[in-house]
Amino acid sequence: MPGHTARSGLPSLSPREREVLAHIGAGLTYHQIARRLGISVHTVGTYTRRIRAKRSAPTLADLVRLSITQAGG
User: Which helix (H) or strand (E) holds 43?
Assistant: First the structure.
């Protein structure tokens, strides 16, 4: 199924969403992420909302945990 991972059945994250997630996991603020990626803070928020919707990560702590599991697997 396109856009879904084979083993989990969850929608897969886009490369940019994975990049934003990695920066969140590294402890960067939305402003810092925006500067590093050359995008607006609003766009960082959009990517974060998409990640939260795809992975059911309602809190910042959930996003950091998700970042750790993504990096390890």
Answer: helix 41-55
Cα dihedral sign for 4, 7, 8, 12? negative
Q: Residue 17 and residue 72: Cα distance in Å, rounded? A: 16
pTM of the entire structure?
A: 0.83
If phi > 0 it is left, if psi is from -120 to 50 it is alpha, else beta; for residue 59 that is beta
What residue numbers bound the domain in which 23 lies? 15-72
CB atoms within 10 A of CB 8: 9
Tell me the pLDDT tens digit for each residue of 2-44.
565 545 678 899 999 999 999 999 999 999 999 999 999 999 9
- In total, how many domains does the chain have? 1
